[in-house]
Write a structure and sequence with these properties.
A hairpin with a 4-residue loop joins strand 5 and strand 6. The protein is α+β, with helices and mostly antiparallel strands. It contains ten helices and eleven strands. Strands 1, 2, 3, 4, 5, 6 and 11 form a seven-stranded mixed beta sheet that branches. The chain folds into two domains: about 170 residues, 2-Layer Sandwich (Ribosomal Protein S5, domain 2); about 130 residues, 2-Layer Sandwich (Alpha-Beta Plaits).
Length: about 300
Amino acid sequence: MSETPGPIRLILPATSANLGSAFDAAGLAMGLTLTIEARVNSAVGAAELSIDATGRDAERCSRTRNNLIFETYRQVLCRAGREVMPLEIRLHNEIPLGMGCGSSAAALLAGVMLANHFGRLGWTLHQCMEDACRREGHPDNVAACALGYMTVSASTESGVAAVTCGEGIDWKLLLALPAGSLATERARALLPREYSRADTVYNIQRSALLVGAFAGKRGDLLRIAMQDRIHQPYRYEVCPLLPMLLPLAGADGIFGVALSGAGPGVLLVVDSEAVVEAVVERIRRAVDDPALEVLETLIAAGVVEAAM
C-alpha cells in the first residue's frame, strides 16, 4: 500500500481580470493571498473536511458545506478514479469575496492542485490551470492566479494559451470596495449579446495597447489602454463606484482605472512615487464616502506550492 502524500502549502494570489479593455482575456495578480495548508485526516471516522479559517471573511471561508475548494478537489479525483481522502485544512484569506478579485478562481485552482497532490495525478501547473479554467468558464482570472503578474490568456480547442508580462513593475494597486458584493453571473447577465464594429475595434486597439503598456512598463499609456466599451458601461447600475472613479484616471499619479473583474470593486493603478494617503483621500472625496474601504497592494507572482 502506497504511503499517504504529505501535507502541502499553497499560496494563491488575488486577481483583477479584464483591466478595462481586455475583457475575458487579461488578468493581474495582486499581493493579496489565499494561503492553504492541507493534510490528509487519517483518523478513524474523520469528517471528509475540516477547516480552520482566519483572515478576511473567516466565517464564510470556514464553511464545509458546498465548499468550492473541496468540491473541486472531490470532482477532480472522482473523474480520475482516485480515492477522495478526508482533508484537514488551515486557511488564511486576504482576498475580498464577491468583489471581482478572483476569489472563486483561487478556490478552483486550489481544489485542482490539492487533488493533483493528494491523488498523485502528476499534472503540471499548466494542466492544473487548464482544468480550473474549464471549471471557471473563462481563463483570465485562473491564468493570472497560476502564472502571476499581468497574464494574457485565450481558450483554444485543446486547452489554454497564456503568457505573462509586467514582472518587476512597482506600480501600486488600490482596490476601492463597496459595502455590498456582486455575483459574477448577475454582472454577466447585464451584457448585450452583440456589439457594434466601432465598439469592438475600440476595445481591440486598447487591449493591444494594454499589453504594450505592461510589457514596456509604460504607466502613461494606461489611461487610454484601460478604457472600455464592451462591459463596463453596462455594469454602472450595479457597480456605482466605477463612473465616479473613472474620471480620476490620468491625473495626480493615477495611471488607470477599471472595474476589477465583474465588479463591484474598482482597481486603480497608481504611480510608485504617488503618496497613497493622498490618492485614497481623492478616491473617497470622488465617491463622497469618507469610510470607503480602499486596500493597497502590488503586482504579484503566481501560485506557490510547497511541501510542509
